[in-house]
């Protein structure tokens, strides 16, 4: 098995970040995470954040940037990521009102291709992160998820596959990882146990239904660069949850290297 980086999607600890952005980032580094994927920057300038990351020996993987922010000022988002040496700009979600019809999806595909080209020209890579809704509607006789990538080139758009959401949608996560081998640099490792009020019930790694060992092996085979821990909702204090998940990876993955 290949050695992949271990990162954290910082949205998992969003409450802690809101209270103490810098202190929370320090704690994540202390836990052992090698990289972080942002979902906001705590009001810090790019230069201040870059210096803090260097001090903590944390790699900036990239950031989840909303479609609204992308359309408002994509260059501003690109420049910030360049300044903190983060190679990936990721669209994390599409609002329900923007994906009501196949035609609406096709309009998004065109925008993704255009945005991806703009991101690529600045030396970064654009990617898209899925939930479950991408598997609810078909576009061009494919799930919207697959149609996104069929309508764009790998140069313009890479895959950030969320393993938990794929399985929650009822699809074969291992098959999807294999399907996008070579186009899948970022893999969100998310465990869950059923649903609560119709929503995915995310839990710490090793506490849910995902066959994590097989997902990690499949990710290695597919050329994944970063395994990124993400827990949408935490029943325990979030920093405790991400510590539990990192320790699971330490015992079940990192111990092999």
Structure, explained:
α2 packs parallel to α10 (238-252) and α5 crosses α6 (144-150). This protein is an alpha/beta fold and 257 residues long. The mean pLDDT is 97. The strands form three sheets. Strands 1-2-3-4-5-8-9-12 form an eight-stranded parallel beta barrel, surrounded by five helices. A hairpin with a 2-residue loop joins β6 and β7 (142-143). Helix content is 43%, strand content 20%.
Element layout with pairings:
Elements: E1 5-9, H1 14-19, H2 21-31, E2 35-38, H3 46-56, E3 59-64, H4 67-83, E4 88-91, H5 102-121, E5 125-129, E6 138-139, E7 142-143, H6 144-150, E8 158-162, H7 163-168, H8 173-179, E9 186-189, E10 191-196, E11 199-203, H9 212-222, E12 226-229, H10 238-252
Parallel strand pairs: 1-2, 1-12, 2-3, 3-4, 4-5, 5-8, 8-9, 9-12
Antiparallel strand pairs: 6-7, 10-11
Helix pairs in contact: 2-10, 5-6, 8-9
